[in-house]
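Need the bound structure for thiamine diphosphate, inputs here:
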Amino acid sequence: MLLSRLIEEKMLILLRQGKISKWFSGIGQESISVGVTMALNLEEYILPMHRNLGVFTTRHIPLYRLFCQWQGKASGFTKGRDRSFHFGTQDYKIVGMISHLGPQLGVANGIALASKLNNKHQVTAVFTGEGGTSEGDFHEALNIASVWQLPVLFCIENNGYGLSTPASEQYNCEHIADKALGYGMEAHIIDGNNIIEVYSKVSEIAKNIRENPRPVLLEFKTFRMRGHEEASGTKYVPQDLMDFWAKKDPVINFQAYLREHHILSEGEEVKIKADIIHEINDHLDKAYAEDEILPDLINELNDVYKPFKYQEFKANGGFKEIRFIDAVSESLRQSMEQHSDLVIMGQDIAEYGGVFKITEGFVELFGKERVRNTPICESGIVEAAMGLSIAGIKSVVEMQFADFVSSGFNPIVNYLAKSHYRWNQEADVVIRMPCGAGVGAGPFHSQTNEAWFTKTPGLKVVYPAFPYDAKGLLATSINDPNPVLFFEHKALYRNIRQNVPTDYYTLPLGKASLLKEGNDISIVAFGAAVHWAIEVLDTNNHINADLIDLRTLQPLDTETIFSSAKKTGKVIILQEDSLFGGIASDISSLIMENCFEYLDAPVKRVASLETPIPFASQLENQYLSKSRFEKELIELLEY
Ligand SMILES: Cc1ncc(C[n+]2csc(CCOP(=O)(O)OP(=O)(O)O)c2C)c(N)n1
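Answer from helper R.:
Posting the output first, comments after.
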């Protein structure tokens, strides 16, 4: 506790000297970080927050590495890419927060689930403040942990204020611990300023959970003695409250206790303090001596995705004519056989087989541990998938409909997408996205929302149009350790059939397929739009077109697009989503920038209306780009 306190005191001086940019003080709360960390074994994961310096010091991270992290230097943990405590390290089994606070609660569930699946008898501890408990992630995480009886210690540091908001404006019950009852969970209130109480109670509870896995909510009563961050001050905190808590300072009180019990002499105390100050200064000098990071474009771009060497699996056996939906199901089933620890999670996917019946029969084959029904908690489940990946387990998450991914958006675009770039941690997760219109399902069951993800570095986006591609690409997406959004168009599920190898096989991501060849015009499409284009070409067989099915949108096969554009000089891009901000716009720009001198006409984008997707079929038909494609194609040919 003293180490953590003295580092902080030094940081406050450096802050005043303008040598560090920001500091979130945990002064007064040290017993919680230190006590919880001491109660855990070194191989057990801890997910700390912005005030938990004591977690890092108690896990014995060399101080200069922490200082380098705060100064954005290479010996930190993020190569200068993220600040303060926003990092994780597998070496110390610490998984740092993302700024959004709540998501890590769900990530802890995934780590704990891995521990349970592997019979490791380990506890995972995750921290949040009382402010963070107002986020949906908190409720989803507690609910999932309780339903699945996961060995997680949810450590709530109730320090009175969330930035300037007092606890009374944050929640309306006496204790946060009271909320546990609603989730069917055990809870304890602990004096967070008393290291002996923290350590002994948490040790006892952790020991018990290792043998009898279950989540426990721990509410630590404590107080934030300094501003939210140093610049924001504490003017809004009544003085008597400050005075009351100052008397409960955990470091001073523990020192007094040790002295009283003749455990610590004055001489020892002076020496311990001097040694710590010496250590801090030494490590600071080392951090200062390290050169600033030199920006390197290649390094930056290379670290967004975990390198993945595509391995080709060829099918040897026979072929069978199957539907698109069967191809997805077969691929998923064969991947479950291929990867003996792969876990699938989703709503109603177990005995019920999922709303599209893709996982029908899977429970009998692989058991309920690996084929997991989930509560309706999209964020919490994506976060759990992230946690599984941290613990080395692959997973596939089924969104019941792609539309509902908006309820799990934050962890996908901020956690899964950014982890490898930030701290070298892969998010080995595939998110299956039954998407698309043309089925009369209205605004919330029809969207094709690939553009929400193609614009986020760190994600891969796959969008097959045929059973053969769906099967091979899903297998590769699962093999790929990066997060993949796998779009499956619902209108294709039962309508498109193809001869597909019965064995397991893979297809590479980032390779479009040239379905038809012609010299007059290039048609670029993906998903259901590929079939719309085929229909139009079938009825207009005088049109000599290249038809490119992109198959994957990120990575995008620009080579195939450009060589076709250069050959025909005219390109039309057909997209099912509404126009503005869709991937057709980017493809169009890429063609303009790379093939301008070869073009005989402006690149044409054909997309759906700038409205939500209507329900009634005549309105939906008008909405969809399908209805306008033929006319636009002929116009461009005649340009
Ligand atoms: C989703 C989100 N909303 C708002 C913020 C801004 N913010 C950062 S910390 C904080 C207060 C957090 O309070 P609490 O959880 O009680 O933790 P404490 O800072 O008191 O330790 C706020 C509002 C954020 N980081 N993320």
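Comments: The first strand starts at residue 46 and ends at 47. The longest helix spans residues 266-289.
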